Every structure is written in C-alpha cells, then in structure tokens.
Task: structure prediction
Amino acid sequence: MEFRKTLARYNAKDLELYLGSSQSNPPFPSAFDRDAWNKLRNSLGEDLITRIVSAAQEAAQTPIPSLPATLFLDCKRTGIRETYQEPEFKRRKMMAIMTLAECFEMQGRFLDPILDVAWAICEESSWALPAHQFDLADMEFPVVDLGVAMTVLSLAEVDYLLGKYLDPQLGKRIRYEANRRCFTPYLERHDFWWLYRTQQRDVNNWTAVCNGGIVGAATYLENDQTRLAEMIAKAARSLVDYLDTFDIDGGSSEGPGYWAYGFGYFVILAHLIANRTGGKVNFLEGDHIRKIAEFPLKTQLSRGMFVNFSDCDRYLTFSPFLPAFLGKTLDIPGLSWLAASQKIDPEDDILTYSLRDIFWRPGNDFYVEYYPNKHDWFSGMSWMISRYNPLDADALVLAAKGGNNGEMHNQNDVGNIIVHYKQESLIADIGRGRYTRQYFGPDRYEFLVNSSLGHSVPMPNETLQKEGAEYSASVLDHHAGDVEDRLILDLKGAYPKEALLESLTRKIIFHREPPFGWIELEDQFVFKGKRCLFDTAITTLSQVDIGDDGVVIHGSRGSLRIGFDSNHVNVRMDLFHDVELAEGLQDVRRIVFSVIKPLQKGSIRLEIVPL
Result:
C-alpha cells in the first residue's frame, strides 16, 4: 500500500534537514498568546469556560492522591487494576483541567497547584501502568508502555503551554524525566514488543499510542535536531507496521473503540510532526489513511452503537477532536457530522485529549446528517455489515464476521453475528470483560466473553473454538445486492480436531424483503465417519421467550422472532448470571438450538425476523 512508501521515505538524514531548514509552526497557541486564547474563549462561550474553571477550582482544592508502593503492587497481588490507576489518572486529570483553566484566565491562581501535581507526577517512580509492569520500578531499566507515553505527552504540553510562568526547575525536571524514561530507551533499545512486528508477535494500538506519545513529546522537548530526526524516522518505520494491521478496506479487528485510541494517537503525532517540520512531513497522505479514517462510519449500527467484535465496548462515545480534525483535514463530511453528534466534555479527559477537544472541537456549522451504506465489506477481516434502510435508525442491521482467532484483542468468535433492530443489539456480541491481570493471562479464554461459548457460533461435537491465528474461517462466497447480501463461511478451521469435522459451512443471508427484512442463518455440518451432536447458539442480553417452534427475543423497543424446524431441532436457554462485563454485571442468555439426535450429516437453519 502507498502508506509504506510514504512513511518509509522519511529517513533520519532528510528529516534533520527538514527540521533545520523549516519554520516550525506552533501546534497550538501557548498561554503567552493572549489574543488567541481570548478569541477561543469568546468562541466557546462562557458556559463552557465556567465549567472548566469550576472543575479546576475543585481540583486545586483537592489533595494530590497518594500512590504508595503497596498500591502499585495491588494489581500483581489481586489482579485488579483500578486501585492504582484511578488515583494515578486523577492526578493527570487534575493537571489537565487546571492547565486549561489557567490558559483561559491567566490570573496565576492555578500555577502553584499545577506545579505541585506536575512535580508529583515527575516523582512517581514509574509512569507505566501496573497492569503492564507488575513489579516496582527498576530505575535502571524503565518500562515503556501506554501510561508512559500518555504521561510524557501530557507533561510536555503543560510545559509548552505554561512553562514560561511555572518554576523553571519544573521544565528542567520534565526534560530530565522524559529523557531518562522515554527518549533514551526509545532510541537505544529494541526490546519493546510494540515497536515492530515480529515472527513471535504482531503489533496493535500500543504501537500508535507509544510512538505518538513519546515522539510527540519529543517534538516539544527535544532541541537536538539529530536526535529528534532519529526518533521521527524510527516512529515512521514502526508506524508502517501499525498501519499494516488495518485491512485493505481500512478495517481494524480491534474495532472502532481501539481505532479511536490507537489511530487517535497516530493523528496526534502526524499533526505535531507536520507543525514541527513546517508541513514538510505529512503522515496523513494517501487513500489508505482515508479508508482507515472512515472505519467508524462504516461500522455504525445506530447512533452511539457500533460493531463491537473483539474487546470493544457495546456503547461508544468518541472524543470529538478526532473525527472533527479528520473530517476537516481529509474533507470527509461524515466524520464532521460524527464529531458534532458526540457529547463534548473536555473535563473528562487527560490533557492530550482535552487540549484538542478545545481547539479541534466541532464548530457551530450546520452538518448534514451522515447515513451509512446499505452494505459494507472489510475483505481482509471478512466483516459484512448489512442494513435494511440506512435512512431509518430503527431498521434492521446485521454484522457478521469470519476472520481468525489470533486477532488483536482476540475473542474466539469466528462466524459470530450481531443483529441490531430498533437501535438495540438483540442478538449481541456481549462486549468485553472487565480488564484485570487474569483477563490478559493464560486463562483468558476461560472467561465467557472471550470463549466461543459466549458468542453466536456453532458447537460441533460439544467442542469450542480454539485460540490462535491457525483457527480461522475462509470465505466461500460474498455477495452484496439490492435483494440480498450473502456471506458463506467455511468454519471447519476454527475448531480443533476433537470436533471431528469433515466440513462445517455457515450461510448468512440478509434478505431485504419488505416490510422489515429478515436474516437467514444456516449451519451445514458433516462429521468424520460417526454421528455426533451439533449445536448452534445465539447470545443475547435481552429477555427471551421460548415456544415449540419459535423463540422471541424482547428488546425495550422491538423484538426478533427466531424460527426453526421443531421436527429436527430442540431449543433450550442457558442463563449466565452476573457476567462481569466492562460496564458492570450483566445476565447473559445463550439460546441453544440442537439437533434432536446425533447425526453424521445435517444442518440447522434459523429464520430471524423483526416483529
């Protein structure tokens, strides 16, 4: 793809020339530029400024949260992340909101509280998150992770915005800590798994976040142009591997939530480097970048709900800065509309986002509402998204996937489907579990949300899918048309040999027959030389009624009827109480359709019809 040539052309020698010969443009006005901040204040309105200042006053009066060593070790000892992360993040949110308030007011009343919390952050033994480090800090071998990257960029931007007004030793301390914890390890070490794709491990959103935070901070703090050029060149090479995780159609198997996080930091870095080089280096060129930018538009189920395969939340709110900036920069009106449709609350985010939510926030322009396509297809991931009527938010939507079980933030979900009707996922991907140490450990696939038991997929011979890229589906047929969309998958490869499969084919057809459309789901199986049991499951978070020849899933606004042949298929419902999902405890219902008796060859066909 063209992005490989685009990023690969930025070698350290040329970058040093760009840095030396170009007039650097400030990415944002510093607090010294009172005209710019006063103009911004007038455009935002006093209501928003009042909320920011009020939150800053509260932060200034709040004691800086303590972060003792035993609190850091809590994740290692219990597996729980939040006990350390919540006070750690609170420090950074306090610093962020007070920085914005001081930039708007410039009265000096927040300068000492900012100094205190920024100095406290500098004195933390590690900026890494305990979920990624576990042990107490080894001061001679710093861990470089997401937390480090986000923290160093936050501190760099505090120094840029207010450094002239803060104690000069803070700026010196920030540069010392950034160099020790980030810049020197980044330049001298190659042991970071997120830096490059290897035979042992692929990269993911970490690659964009870590490069974006560290090298983004260097555009502010690093005055040695040779050194900065080396860092940008290294980032460019690393980000080739990151962009390669998106398929040819711009899709990411991590889903739209991690698109916002990873690609968000890619865009942050692109913007900072473009300004630092006077526009001579542009990471946002090319058609592939444009396709990646459009990913959330194509995966929208209804407002606020997106296709959430893998570890993706069921409900998403994007920080508006990212779609707003991309919509304007790449001239994609749909992204401008997406940004304008989000709830804007800069108090909720750390500095790298709130600063941009202020400067890149959608304006008061009139945006024509974006309507998605009738059909979207991500060929590299085998995701099909079909809509009965994109102009109607309540209309039937289907999302289906093939892929493999070695994807980024993988769940064993090859062949999974989501059926969305009247703005609810009645047949649901139940989302991600609560992130703990165990969730990403060797027992990951014992969690219902990650096991194929927690997805709408077959269970041949009472056998679950296995994890690993070798357990995959292949596309036998894909078609998009006015009458129907069709996806036929060979699922045999997603199961281990214990499944005894000769063949397993899943046919998914989205019928656009009036008045509402309907979905046909058929699994055809052949076992190797013996008769076995075969189940097909549907997962839901909604209420379920089971009848002799049909099942009804009841949502708050609409329902689905699932028809089947009761002469050949039995149905039951398994109820999992209080499953720990990201948003809290939820009851998960698994509707199981089973052949009445063991068969060597057969099928289960379901008709999913809106009511």
